[in-house]
Specification:
Elements (H helix, E strand, L loop, with lengths): L9 E11 L4 E12 L4 E9 L8 E9 L5 E8 L3 E9 L3 E8 L7 E11 L2 E10 L2 E12 L4
Antiparallel strand pairs: 1-2, 1-10, 2-3, 3-4, 4-5, 5-6, 6-7, 7-8, 8-9, 9-10
């Protein structure tokens, strides 16, 4: 199955759950917009909102480059909570996996990872987490559904 998320421009709706260390499960909803400026550069903006207002919205602004083999990518990210972030990803036959690390931190290194498993061309299952040192501090599990172009 060919991937549509990340590899094609489009809009995706996010619905799922956010888990916070020492906290309750929180409903999360959001939207991701992926655009391609040239053949190997993409931009992606994601807004995660918490309808129960348990926490502030999270905004992620990516700029990335697909390698020539079209199986690996690198990106920089401005994250509303973590600040400046760098990362890399792999595009597998059924999943897109990425890892990232916060720049400019000496004392307590924060990192994260995401896996987007392709259910079909219009739906993905997303799971990911942010770590501080060796401890999980938050996690997400959600579905992404591609919106029809208007």
């Amino acid at each position: 199955m060919a991937h549509t998320f990340l590899l094609e421009s489009g809009q995706w709706i996010i619905e799922g759950n956010w888990l916070q260390r020492n906290g309750m499960l929180i409903i999360v909803k959001g939207k991701t917009i992926v655009t391609w400026n040239r053949t190997d550069w993409f931009q992606m903006v994601t807004k995660l909102a918490f309808p129960t207002k348990d926490r502030e919205d999270i905004i992620l602004q990516y700029r990335g480059r697909l390698d020539a083999d079209e199986r690996r990518f690198t990106f920089v990210l401005q994250h509303s909570e973590l600040g400046k972030v760098e990362g890399e990803g792999w595009i597998g036959p059924e999943s897109i996996v990425q890892r990232y690390w916060v720049l400019g931190e000496d004392r307590l290194r924060r990192t994260g990872f995401d896996t987007l498993h392709c259910l079909d061309e219009n739906r993905y299952y997303h799971s990911g987490a942010v770590l501080s040192g060796n401890q999980l501090i938050s996690a997400i599990e959600a579905t992404l559904e591609r919106q029809a172009e208007s």
